[in-house]
Design goal:
Oligomer: heterodimer
Distance between the termini of chain B: 95 Å
Number of domains of chain B: 3
Strand content of chain A: over 45%
Strand order of the largest sheet of chain A: 2-3-4-5
Radius of gyration of chain A: 17 Å
Number of domains of chain A: 1
Order of helices and strands of chain B: EEEEEEEEEEEEEEEEEEEEEEEEEEEEEE
Structural class of chain A: mainly beta
Chain lengths: ~130, ~280
């Protein structure tokens, strides 16, 4: 009987914490988690979607609306202090954005090959 | 999305530039992979009823675990993962959508952290094999001799009280819990012959500045180790002393401070033998 490196991990989901943005109208979805922060989207009473940033330790929600957004903003991914997502402008075109949590600044990203860009996901090493 | 408009998840390996399709075995049509952390992927799949479920995929084991948030009526999605925390959303019986944060209890199959070691022992002496393992409790142990289960050998250590020739051979241990098992390296029990000093060191008298040597010759099972002592204190290879752990001890340019009583201890895996004590006189 030789050496074996057999290893497996299973997870029993023990504790669920519901996430409902206080400004939602029956729709909140969480899309990403990193370093104690969760990002996602909620739908308000005007049927507009907003991104949110939830701090697990403080149990606080921060709405993320790209300043260039006319329609909805979606926060799709987070890595460290950076959030990525998408927003709709006045012409309904979709753009990607990068949000710097520390500086509270938004940077628009549009793929040069895209008419409408929507970025999903980010990483600490770059997008 | 394939030619039939079915969605499949995929895992892309940057190093190999290879794609692996991820389809939950309970999925009817669609599987989507949404997040990855370490060796785990989360996503969702659609079953034959059109309901959505979250899944956790372990890359190493290629295993899928379905999980639906409590209160889920029709759909539950897992969208992101970091370490042992998973985020997603679910739809309740009022068709309202909620986000969730799940903090799973991580249950881990055994992993051997300290492997058993080969044992050499004299006939009639005791021999002990030990292993250390981690994993979700309870862990159970089963020792094997020549690939056959040893009755009653079900602890982290296994001891043979009086070793005989019939005990010589290969041993290993399997550690098990409800999540898997781990098999140790195979180790050997050998019967060794105790060291025996056949040529004792001899007393020496040297002039100051001359070289003094003490030599011992011993038999016994290899490997034999040597440790010379001066006045019952272990010597190190330093200054004008060399061979402190060899069969021959050499003292170059001897001084009065080297004078004293010398002896050597010879060891192997089973026992040790101590030489006679002899004097070094420096004139």
């Amino acid at each position: 009987m030789g050496a074996s490196t057999a290893f497996s991990t299973t997870r029993e989901l023990a504790t669920y914490t519901p996430l409902n943005d206080p400004n939602e109208d029956n729709f909140t979805a969480a899309h990403g988690i990193s370093g104690g922060n969760i990002v996602g989207q909620y739908n308000d009473f005007s049927s507009i979607d907003h991104g949110f940033l939830y701090n697990v330790a403080n149990q606080t929600y921060t709405t993320l609306d790209d300043p260039d957004a006319v329609g909805s903003t979606y926060a799709n991914g987070i890595s460290g202090g950076n959030v990525v997502g998408s927003y709709q402008d006045a012409s309904q075109a979709t753009h990607g954005f990068l949000y710097d949590v520390a500086n509270q600044t938004y940077t628009t990203f549009d793929d040069p090959d895209a008419g409408n860009a929507s970025y999903q996901g980010t990483s600490a090493s770059g997008i | 999305m394939d030619a039939l408009n079915n969605t499949h998840g995929f895992l892309y390996n940057l190093g190999n530039q290879s794609f692996t399709t991820l389809d939950d075995p309970d999925a009817d049509n669609n599987t989507s992979a949404n997040g990855i952390s370490g060796g785990n992927i989360v996503g969702y799949y659609e079953d034959s009823q059109g309901d959505y479920h979250g899944f956790l995929y372990n890359v190493g084991n290629q295993s899928y675990t379905t999980f639906d948030a409590p209160g889920t009526d029709i759909s539950s999605n897992a969208n992101g993962i970091e370490g042992s925390s998973i985020v997603g959303d679910f739809r309740d019986s009022n068709s309202d959508f909620h986000g969730y944060l799940a903090t799973p209890v991580v249950s881990v199959a055994p992993t051997i952290t300290v492997q058993p070691a080969n044992v050499g022992v004299l006939v009639g002496k005791s021999a002990t094999f030990s292993v250390k393992a981690t994993g979700t409790a309870p862990l159970t142990y089963q020792w094997y001799f020549k690939s056959k289960k040893i009755s009653g050998a079900t602890k982290a250590s296994y001891t043979i009280a009086k070793v005989a020739a019939a005990n010589v051979g290969k041993y290993d241990v399997v550690v098990t819990n409800t999540h898997g098992k781990a098999t140790s390296h195979t180790v050997t029990l050998a019967i060794v012959t105790a060291p025996k000093i056949v040529t004792q060191p001899k007393a020496a008298t040297v002039n100051a500045g001359a070289t003094a040597k003490f030599t011992v010759k011993a038999t016994g099972s290899s490997p034999l180790t040597y440790q010379w002592q001066r006045n019952s204190v272990a010597l190190k290879n330093a200054g004008n002393v060399s061979g402190a752990t060899a069969a021959t001890l050499t003292i170059t340019k001897a001084t009065a401070s080297n004078a004293g009583t010398y002896r050597v201890i010879v060891k192997n895996a089973g026992a040790s033998a101590t030489s006679v004590s002899v004097k070094l006189t420096v004139k």
